[in-house]
Amino acid sequence: MSRHPGQGSPALIAANNHENGQTEMIRVVVDAMGGDYAPREIVRGAVEAARQPNIEVILVGQREAVEKELSGCDLDGARISTCWAEETVSMDEDPVRAIRRKPNSSIAVGIKLVKSSHSSAFVSGGSTGAVAAAALLILGKKKGISRPALGIVFTSPSGPVLFLDVGANPDCRPQHLVQFAEMGNVYMKRIFSISEPRIGLLSNGEEETKGDKLTRATYQLLAKGGLNFLGNVEGHDLPRGKADVVVTDGFTGNVVIKLSEGLGEVFAELSKQAVDNNPIFREAEKRILNYTALGGAFLLGVKGNVIITHGRSDAAAIKQAVRIAEQMVRQRVTEAIGH
Amino acid sequence: MSRHPGQGSPALIAANNHENGQTEMIRVVVDAMGGDYAPREIVRGAVEAARQPNIEVILVGQREAVEKELSGCDLDGARISTCWAEETVSMDEDPVRAIRRKPNSSIAVGIKLVKSSHSSAFVSGGSTGAVAAAALLILGKKKGISRPALGIVFTSPSGPVLFLDVGANPDCRPQHLVQFAEMGNVYMKRIFSISEPRIGLLSNGEEETKGDKLTRATYQLLAKGGLNFLGNVEGHDLPRGKADVVVTDGFTGNVVIKLSEGLGEVFAELSKQAVDNNPIFREAEKRILNYTALGGAFLLGVKGNVIITHGRSDAAAIKQAVRIAEQMVRQRVTEAIGH
Lengths: 339, 339
Description:
CATH architecture of the largest domain in chain A: 3-Layer(aba) Sandwich
Distance between the termini of chain A: 32 Å
Number of domains of chain A: 2
Largest sheet of chain A: 11 strands, mixed
Radius of gyration of chain A: 20 Å
Shape of chain A: globular
Strand order of the largest sheet of chain A: 3-2-1-4-11-10-5-6-9-7-8
Strand content of chain A: 15-25%
Largest interface: A-B, 50 and 50 residues
Oligomer: homodimer
Order of helices and strands of chain A: HEHEHEHHEHEEHEHEEHHEEHH
CATH topology of the largest domain in chain A: Isopropylmalate Dehydrogenase
């Protein structure tokens, strides 16, 4: 490791500075080896992010690959350091086994930097399963949270919408969906300053009698709970932004984001046929359909800030992911979830 | 009823003619009262359909409303007749109760015309639940089918794709999804002459270990079965046409079609901002995103041909729905499902 933690815990120092009204320096670990365009685009995005005020970035990955990319970057004004991790986890490895057998993978090393409070957040475009497994095994769950969930934020005509779970938990029980709603409530309050986020439950009809067994049972729990529960929202309500937080199981949520992405691509291709590179279409694709262009998903409910970027992330997406990490740290989202 | 059945059963006569290589006349009942633009657009679409070769249409609905609309239509060359049904089922009524309590609703009367073999198919834009309930209660299920499913066909760059269930069964067991695959296999063979339809299972990952419990168990059954099973398909594979038939539970399927519709609308609005009424966008919306523009959903597994159009269907959509009904009858899809 080319950078060593000082005496104090950066996370705690950050929190204290925040309380004092100062803008604290946030340290974010970026996995240089994760993603389709790694390490080049990741390193470039990380360097860009490290030029932002009050952000420090630690790149974790294979020394040779990372140094080669860094040598091609203008590092002037970038608060960037490196940490070597010679193993990598591939997309088709069993996540839990990969994390157990490769303690020197960039994912495991990166998450351990968060665990040791050397860094406040971890950003990776590697295997979602492996990052989630590392977060669970190394950081652990927040008390009161039985199932951490993967959330994304997309924009809608009514504002940002947090959608979760998008894949961490294919099979859920009603209490899990209620916890997703509670975590989403915290996120939208803290990150977007929405005082009473409107909570929606994704279903196949508006009425409370609609839904599969899971959804119908969840409806009853949410209706009795203390959140601002709107009721069921349907597939067509999602892009409209009818609710600020929409919860579903990780199977349905994953189908939803991948379908949106696929439709966005088809849309983009057709747009090109009609009006080559019209900026409105590029904006539309980015804003409404390609949720993943918004900087990545985040894992809620673990003891640390973990951002999982899309495999196809380029430098701009990595920079945006570091910005999400920064917001989560500054607004102390993880501290406010569970106990 | 202004038209009475003759001695022979039209459905049987039709089938016999078909065997003899002649083009038989197909009689389709259209529910004049179902849909947001009923009765006007329904009546107009029905009249258009009734001008097609070898198609007869029976409009079922409230006398006063239907006669008023018919009086404004050019009926020249249209083989159209009427059947009065003075009750209507609203969208928010409990489906089973509505069908039981309103034997003279347009839905119940229309389905009974199919039951009595007076007509070969029923087309309605009314409450999906009520039409499905009437089909189950009056026509009954085909033997060997435990759960009739609602399917839609959308076009993809690789050709038509049948997607089911889109809402009839929010909670399914693995055997139900296998039956959906078998019914879809029959449909694509008969209607699109695909000799060995590629069957896909919607899941949250390609690998057979991905999925919720239902999907993982279904994978094992389909892998052992006699269909051309491709394996799992993901959300982004859907618009690409990776499989000819994609099966899922009715909860996920319903979310998928409504989300696609919602994204299509957002897309259309943005297109208008950029290029007012560019025909490529209108075509794109119709072809890829707005599955419902393709003429409606059909109920597979009941003893009769039942087509449920989108609530927003206009005359063109109704005409297209009658065309789907005709194809189902001519290709004897229902006869080939179950036993």
